[in-house]
Design goal:
Elements lengths: L3 H4 L3 H10 L4 H19 L2 E4 L1 H20 L13 E5 L26 H8 L3 E6 L19 E2 L2 E5 L5 H9 L2 E6 L2 E6 L22 E2 L1
Parallel strand pairs: 2-3
Antiparallel strand pairs: 1-3, 4-5, 6-7, 7-8
Helix pairs in contact: 3-4
Length: 214
């Protein structure tokens, strides 16, 4: 079950809740991981989900928060303290394979964070995993031979595009619910919000949106 009260928070509100301690980093991370677990099989948004590492990083973030709170130094928290996010699988994240969406490569864990990951993680962000991409990011649809293709959440028979198709599937449709009936799968959008915090989803109508896959 998706926690709609948490799901409705935009990025600024989520950041503030994490900074004040109203919401723990571990609870926020656990929430988004549960959404990913429930919906990724339908949307194909993620190639790699790093749940164990994400929860460990969130625990470290909560320990830091507790230490700074006791010392009355919460102003020293990093800007993105405890914020959950994911990286496109063209970006190196230490300890996680960077597949580039290609079965032709040896998928060894990256030895260190790339510049983008290092910057965001250095500001306290929590990585949940790596999202689906076209092979080497070259086409306008995110399908490859190493993971299920990313899907348009409002019409699961269609692509969510590329090269950020996995990100689009996650951001565009995970604030809703799938209901199976008569062999068809439908997506119901509750408010047009994204899986990731940060405001109304681009290009979506508010209210009930129903698409069918025959």
């Amino acid at each position: 079950m998706v926690d709609l009260s948490l799901q409705a928070l935009n990025a600024a509100a989520l950041r503030d809740a994490l900074a004040t301690g109203e919401l723990s980093a571990r609870d926020a991370t656990g929430h988004f991981l549960s959404v990913i677990e429930a919906r990724n099989r339908h949307l194909g948004a993620f190639i790699t989900i790093t749940a164990e590492q994400a929860l460990a990083d969130a625990g470290t973030a909560d320990t830091l928060h507790a230490q700074l709170s006791r010392a009355h130094r919460l102003s020293e928290l990093p800007l993105l303290h405890g914020m959950p996010l994911a990286f496109k699988d063209l970006t190196d994240v230490a300890g996680v394979p960077t597949t580039h969406g290609s079965a032709a490569l040896e998928h060894k864990p990256a030895p260190e964070d790339g510049a983008l990951a290092a910057t965001l993680k250095g500001q306290g962000a929590i990585s949940l995993g790596k999202t689906q991409v076209p092979e080497f990011g070259l086409t306008a649809y995110s399908e490859n031979r190493i993971a299920p293709p990313s899907r348009n959440p409002h019409s699961l028979s269609r692509s969510s595009g590329g090269s950020s198709g996995g990100s689009a599937a996650g951001r565009g449709g995970w604030h809703g619910s799938f209901r199976a009936r008569d062999g068809r799968r439908r997506f119901h959008s509750h408010s047009g919000r994204r899986l990731w915090p940060g405001g109304a989803q681009a290009g979506a109508r508010h209210g009930a949106i129903r698409s069918e896959r025959g």
